[in-house]
Amino acid sequence: MKMKDSFKSKSFRVGGYSVFAAVLVIAIIVIVNVLVNAVPSKYTQYDTTANRYYSLSDESKNLLAGLNDDVNIHWIVREGQNNAMLEHLLNSYTAASSHIILDQIDPDVSPTAVTAYTDSYSDNSLVVEYGDRYRYIDNSEIFVTDMYAYYTTGQASTEFAGESEITSAIDYVQRTELAKMYILTGHGETELADSYTNAIEKQNVETASLSIVETGSVPDDCSMLFINYPKSDLSEADKDAILTYLQAGGKLLLVTNPGYQDDFDNLYAVMEYYGTSPVEGIVLEGDAERTVNGIPYYILPTIASTDLTSSITENNYLILFAIAQGIQTNEDVRDGVKVTPLLSTSDSAFSKLDLASSAEKEKGDPEGPFDLAVMIEEPLENGDSTRLVWFGSPAIDDESINEAISGANQDLFLNAVTWMCDPEGNDFSIHTKTISYERLTIPSTTSGVLTAIAVAIIPAVFLCIGIVIFVRRRRK
Predict the structure, then answer these.
(1) Would strands 157-160 and 143-146 be described as parallel, antiparallel, or unpaired?
(2) What's the gap between Cα 236 and its chain centre?
(3) Coil, strand, or helix at residue 413?
(4) 314 vs 52: CA distance, rounded Å
(5) CA 27 → CA 15, 16, 18, 23, 24, distances in Å?
(6) What mean pLDDT comes out for the span 45-66?
(7) 207: which strand partners?
(8) pLDDT score, position 201
(9) How many Å apart are CA 345 and CA 442, to the nearest integer?
(10) Residue 135 φ then ψ, to 5°
(11) If we measure between CA atoms, which residue out of 311, 343, 313, 342 comes closest to residue 431?
């Protein structure tokens, strides 16, 4: 057969059609990939991780939506050392706002570009910069390892705090002035744990101690006052100074301990002025399902649906109170004062007046339900408002209890701080995300079945299909 005739043969035409179809398919695949790559990642990628590592919270989205100017994020990382988890998160920020400008700095290539911000650094650290303000975020602050758990249990847990750190830094560099929280001293107040102090500072709130005996009043730059379960009552001068501050639109966060509730007339007079008062005794929960291991004073309270608690309830976290006192709303609350429960017990709860006798309800013990935490607000004529949050248990800022419930107590505490320090009350705590890798364990019988299916049955099926097709074609 001549070569010219071979081009006219049936086999050539069939082969030509096959080549054309293959080229067409490849071209379509290339075009689709180009188009998909041109589409922002937020439309083409879906976060399937259990803890939503790469998804931004509503708090972050709201902050990014309000950006009017460019904020630069410098990613300090050597070539080939990019952390995939951090990279996905950073891409989520750039996809969410065109005002987030991301670039990489290789310290080996441009060492001076890094030392302009920090003297010591590690791979996968960040610098968030806006104008002449910046914040350096070390890798150890993004991937936080709990070494205490390692020394006590032999297993170190790691949390991914990337979103909380980056969002906090973006908020920080844009602020011209930070809120200031004064912590009252002089009455045996318990010192706030370092982890809580650090978390407050990450919310861009400064902290300072305050002795009203020395200053005579609450300072003018006080964004909020914090009283952390004192062991003795306020003086008359303290009470008057705090009421004067609150009546002018001040903010108060109060934590009380039912173990120290005698002779606190001045402290509770402040709260009575805003329509609330304590219930005598220590609250015991009668519903075992609302306790930890059936211990009646380890209470898992009902969480109300409010702005302060939405980030807790939406993620199905629990709040744990140990040794709590009830808080009641008075009948004679003056007009304009709004008291909203945050945490409450079941109807089966009661307040034990004498724990030395027994843990059973006795005659005279007040019956529940009780509020264990409340938020209070009173609008003022000048457009400002007085705000108070009262937690009736020292467990709200106890580190060990907070760790037992994955940090939810601290989240609620921080939500209260930001509700008072932020005029809009919208910027709340972003929960860190635990990084855990679970091993899939399969029973030996199941493993044998799956092996047989993968190694024998599936290949045999395809082999039979191939034989059938071959035989049919031979008969044609």
Answers:
(1) antiparallel
(2) 39
(3) helix
(4) 14
(5) 18, 16, 14, 6, 5
(6) 68
(7) 181
(8) 87
(9) 42
(10) -135, 130
(11) 311
Per-residue pLDDT band at 210 (split at 50, 70, 90): very high
State how far the Cα of 163 lies from the Cα of 129, in Å rounded to an integer.
16
Quick one: tokens of 308? Answer: 């302060």
Question: Which residues make Cβ contacts (< 8 Å) with residue 178, sequence separation at least 6?
Answer: 172, 204, 205, 206
Q: Among candidates 222, 278, 472, 303, which has minimal Cα distance to 393?
A: 278
- Does residue 128 have a pLDDT over 60? yes
Q: What are the phi and psi torsion angles at 69 (to 5°)?
A: -125, 160
Q: How far apart are CA 88 and CA 82, in angstroms?
A: 10
Amino acid at 336: G
Token reading at 410: 């601290």
For residue 305, CA distances in Å to 94, 262, 292, 298, 314 come to: 32, 32, 22, 22, 10
pLDDT, tens digit (0-9, with 9 covering 90-100), for 266-278: 999 999 999 999 9
Question: In the β-sheet with 71-76, what is the strand arrangement from edge to edge?
Answer: 100-105, 71-76, 125-130, 133-137
User: Which amino acid belongs to residue 268?
Assistant: Y
Q: Is the full-model pTM beyond 0.85?
A: no
Summarised one tens digit per residue, pLDDT across range 217-251 is 999 999 999 999 999 999 999 999 999 999 999 99
Write the pLDDT tens digit of every residue in 294-305: 888 899 999 999
Question: How sure is the predictor about 444, in pLDDT bands with cuts at 50, 70 and 90?
Answer: very low
Tokens 């429960």 belong to: 341
- Greatest mean pLDDT range, 401-405, 439-443, 446-450: 401-405
Q: Say if residues 158 and 82 touch (Cβ distance below 8 Å).
A: no
Of 382 and 24, the structure prediction assigns the larger pLDDT to 382
For residue 269, give the nearest of 217, 234, 225 by alpha carbon.
Answer: 234
Instruction: State residue 171's pLDDT score.
Output: 85
| Torsion (CA) 245, 246, 252, 254 in degrees, nearest 10 | 100
Residue whose tokens read 């760790």: 403
